[in-house]
Amino acid sequence: MQGFRLNGRWYCSRPCLEGAIRDELDAPGPLASSVTALPPLRVGVLLQSLGVVPKHHVELALDEQRRTGLRLGAQLRTLGLVDGDAVLRCLAAQASVSYITSFDLSRVHGCSPLPEATVRALGLVPFDWRPVDRALSVICQAPVPRPALRALSRLTGWTVEPFLVDDRVWEAAMSGYRPAAAGKAFTSATAVRSADAVVARIADTASRDRELTVRHAACNAYTWVRIEGEHQVSDLLLGGGSEETLCPAVVTAH
């Protein structure tokens, strides 16, 4: 019997393989750092400390915010009390990341092999992929999606550097993103409703490729599972609410 090989281990039958997959999915992720970070300064405090807006403007925006529900930076912009670049600079300082005020949208065309659906689910848009260095630069909205960044780094092995951009730039980049051709064929990510569906998908793939590497990572309200075989790489997105909300263009498995 030919059997299957999963993450370097051999299994004699499909039931044996499926049991191993379930054990893999149940395994805990890597431990979080024990270092306690200092809490970030509030946006309003940062804007005042940078001399962007006076205290009474922040207080005015906070009063309006209670009625509109907008984030403080957006509320200040709506009231005409601050420009977008100043808010972006402040949000980047708050998150301790870099930012880009002027972004060339053509840079998201064919810049990485990540599937479009995976990019939408992560909320991270690649614009500079350096395979030799195993490094990737991405743009994102505030607040910085830390779980998505950790998941992306863990499942790809790449070093990921985030840059904050204006919400409108991010939306345009997300709409315009197209993956690059890669050595292996990348399929579209698939949203699944249950762990049983994940197990079945992996086992079906193993029946074709016989040897697989499977990794998974928690990412916000869902689990991202990456399946890498000899000929292709595919992503499964487990949980996190409705498939339409999680990833609008994803094929759904029950």
Could you characterize the architecture of this molecule?
The structure is a single chain. With about 250 residues, the protein is of the alpha/beta class. It folds into 3 domains: about 100 residues, no CATH class; about 55 residues; about 70 residues, Type II secretion system, protein E, N-terminal domain (GMP Synthetase, Chain A, domain 3, 2-Layer Sandwich), CATH 3.30.300. The strands form 2 sheets. Strands 1, 2, 7, 8, 9, 10, 11 and 12 form an 8-stranded mixed β-sheet that branches. A hairpin with a 2-residue loop joins strand 9 and strand 10. Helix 1 packs across helix 9.
Structure described in brief:
With 254 residues, the protein is an alpha/beta fold. It is 39% helix and 22% strand.
Structural domain tally? 3
Number of helices: 10
Report the major sheet. Answer: 8 strands, mixed
Contiguous low-pLDDT stretches (5 residues minimum) are 30-38, 241-254
Strand content: 15-25%
Q: H/E series, N to C?
A: EEHHHHHEHEEHEHEEHEEEHE
Mean pLDDT: 81
Report the count of strand segments: 12
